Amino acid sequence: MVSPLSDAQSPLSPLMKIAVVGLGTMGTGIAEVLARAGREVVGIDISEAQAVRCVAALEASTARAVARGRLTEPERAEALGRFRTATELTAAADADLVIEVAPESYETKQQIFRELDGIVRPETILATGTNALSVTRLAAESARPERVLGLHFFNPAPAMKLVEVVSSVLTAPGAVSAVTDLAVQLGKEPVAVGDRPGFVADGLLFGYLNQAAAMYESNYASREDIDAAMRLGCGLPMGPLALLDLIGVDTARTVLEAMYAESRDRLHAPAPILKQLSEAGLTGRKSGRGFYTYEAPGSATVVRDALTPLEGAGPATGRPVGSVGVAGSGTMASGIAEVFAKAGYDVVLAARSEEKAQAAKARIGKSLTRSVDRGRMTAEAAAQTLERITPAGSYDAFADVDLAVEAVAEDLDVKRQLFAALDKVCKPGAVLATTTSSLPVIACARATSRPQDVIGMHFFNPAPAMKLVEVVRTVLTGDDVHATVREVCGRIRKHAVDCGDRAGFIVNALLFPYLNNAIKMVQDHYASLDDIDAAMKLGGGYPMGPFELLDVVGLDVSLAIEKVLHREFRDPGLAPAPLLEHLVAAGCLGRKTGRGFREYARR
């Protein structure tokens, strides 16, 4: 037999006999993947009851696969026949590979590895499924550290495509090749990463989750608004607080503590609320209560509790809004004008010149034509929508609007000048809104004589498609102004979330530190662009990888937001990655220049 540690080993040589140590949810899922892929699998757990539960889970899971047409009954019988259980590690004696997925404890895992040293063959590869502990530290305790590596599956293992293959400085290249080949043969997407807590996917994900928990703890926004903002603003399958409940608050705290112990980055220091919930036994879905309350332990059904907001329980009545002014001529301004016109509002679209305003209206016309071509609206409705938009070359045309929304350049001086002009032009009682994504709303408000009438309405691009609007109150915003904007958001079919006037609001405050940390991973040569993008799409359910997103947003825009966040929160961990600054200085701004983190074909 050729040793799996040999660098000359054929990439097609399979690891056929595999032991899985620890038969919890993850171990059971890994065992199923292996057995269905033709491997002989022994599942080992010190608890005979847990082993019985594992077998029952495999029988149920494979039965569902047959019912859905993903597996035939003979294939199911063969897969189940390839799996057996044991309660002693000696059952791994003839394994080619042992995958350990015991609880996240150095003491527990090291004990398992020490015992395996005296049981398995010298060439057997030992893999740990940890996502929080040091693979190097575990390997150093082994008699043969060169055969120890990390093999991090994601939950649920049968469904999730990502597998992180983790090398320490001690790991033999042949061991990495062997398990990488295995992952491919299992139908997974392996990514190669080095040994640091969280690796790639969890390393980026848990920092973001931690910041979301801290945001909620500070009473900056409600749990519902934080989760809705990240789902609707970023296209994520789950909001961060709901995801923490799914993962387990105690598990998240363990991962973050391991990350902070190594990085000493304050962004990884577990938010105090994670400790408080963990120690109170409020660990999420598995306990029936975490950030949310669930129907029963293990249930995914959220039920009302004392923190659930009441529908329509606003403290004030809004002002009537029949006409809307939109200031600007760019993509965002035309998109916002289209949204209001579709909802039946009369819209004045004002720019610095009549020509720019007419060009913006023409852009809306093309957008409406595309909607007609795709069957999303009738030609008659599109024509009526366009008729509601009046282009103007001066802000004087806003004299009679009830709501003025600015979408001009993201420059505070420009916005202040505009708000000073709106203050003079708009009638008393008109609501003045800024769509800024990173600048202080209060600075715009103070440029007027009526700061109580000023509020933030942060739309997301493209405005006609994106459902989220961040409603940003300053300390001076009137209750009736806030109620007005909430009511308007309902009429234009947008989901409004409330937040205070601080840098990044909800979405950008959580999104851009995550993007910045991804850049630091590449900058430190920890992982490649492609592997990081793949890890976040496959392991985190993100619609785009961080580098795909950065190139779409624009590296210059991203850098500007990073600088605003760093300046406001004064956290060293938020300092823009030097690599981002260098690329912007070189004019590599993303897709719009043909080159950012990647190169693009010129149009």
TrEMBL record:
<dbReference type="InterPro" id="IPR006108">
    <property type="entry name" value="3HC_DH_C"/>
</dbReference>
<protein>
    <submittedName>
        <fullName>3-hydroxybutyryl-CoA dehydrogenase</fullName>
    </submittedName>
</protein>
<dbReference type="InterPro" id="IPR006176">
    <property type="entry name" value="3-OHacyl-CoA_DH_NAD-bd"/>
</dbReference>
<feature type="domain" description="3-hydroxyacyl-CoA dehydrogenase C-terminal">
    <location>
        <begin position="198"/>
        <end position="294"/>
    </location>
</feature>
<comment type="pathway">
    <text>Lipid metabolism; butanoate metabolism.</text>
</comment>
<dbReference type="Pfam" id="PF00725">
    <property type="entry name" value="3HCDH"/>
</dbReference>
<feature type="domain" description="3-hydroxyacyl-CoA dehydrogenase C-terminal">
    <location>
        <begin position="504"/>
        <end position="600"/>
    </location>
</feature>
<feature type="domain" description="3-hydroxyacyl-CoA dehydrogenase NAD binding">
    <location>
        <begin position="17"/>
        <end position="195"/>
    </location>
</feature>
<dbReference type="Pfam" id="PF02737">
    <property type="entry name" value="3HCDH_N"/>
</dbReference>
<keyword id="KW-0560">Oxidoreductase</keyword>
<dbReference type="InterPro" id="IPR013328">
    <property type="entry name" value="6PGD_dom2"/>
</dbReference>
<comment type="similarity">
    <text>Belongs to the 3-hydroxyacyl-CoA dehydrogenase family.</text>
</comment>
<feature type="domain" description="3-hydroxyacyl-CoA dehydrogenase NAD binding">
    <location>
        <begin position="324"/>
        <end position="501"/>
    </location>
</feature>
<dbReference type="InterPro" id="IPR008927">
    <property type="entry name" value="6-PGluconate_DH-like_C_sf"/>
</dbReference>
<dbReference type="InterPro" id="IPR036291">
    <property type="entry name" value="NAD(P)-bd_dom_sf"/>
</dbReference>
